[in-house]
Write a structure and sequence with these properties.
Helix content is 44%, strand content 41%. By secondary structure, the protein is an alpha+beta fold. The chain folds into 2 domains: 52 residues; 80 residues.
């Protein structure tokens, strides 16, 4: 019987360790999902309120794409600049793609485009891209 207990004890320890690892992984995944959702809500709220903000021309400074997550999707990142009352500002926006080829095409095409930027009148450093021309 003593040999059986010695054999079961390591299995029992492993079971708890595996359970803790799975719980930790689920907690981390939930944390990332919540943070991502809050970021999306914040962006959606900001872009929703921007419909009446003044609009100026902007230009693409840099554009690239990269894998997001575990290469399950890609995101195009676009750095843009604009000018308000002689002061230059810049921001970055992202657009998600499932197919890396679509992200590559988007990045290559947007580099040559003009942008229309809406900026917050009391805080011109806050902006959204309203149109890609």
């Amino acid at each position: 019987m003593a040999k059986l207990v010695a054999f079961v004890a390591p299995l029992h320890w492993w079971s708890y360790t595996l359970h803790a690892v799975v719980e930790f992984a689920l907690l981390m995944a939930a944390t990332v999902a919540i943070a991502y959702g809050i970021g999306r809500l914040k962006w959606g709220w900001r872009s929703h309120g921007s419909a009446h903000w003044p609009e100026v021309g902007g230009r693409v400074e840099k554009a690239r794409w990269d894998y997001v997550g575990q290469e399950s999707s890609t995101a195009a990142e676009v750095w843009y600049s604009y000018e308000v009352n002689g002061e230059r500002y810049g921001q970055v926006f992202e657009r998600d793609f499932v197919d890396p080829d679509q992200a590559t095409d988007y990045v290559m095409a947007i580099r040559e485009k003009e942008l229309r930027i809406r900026y917050r009148p009391d805080k011109p450093q806050e902006s959204v891209v309203s149109t890609v021309v």
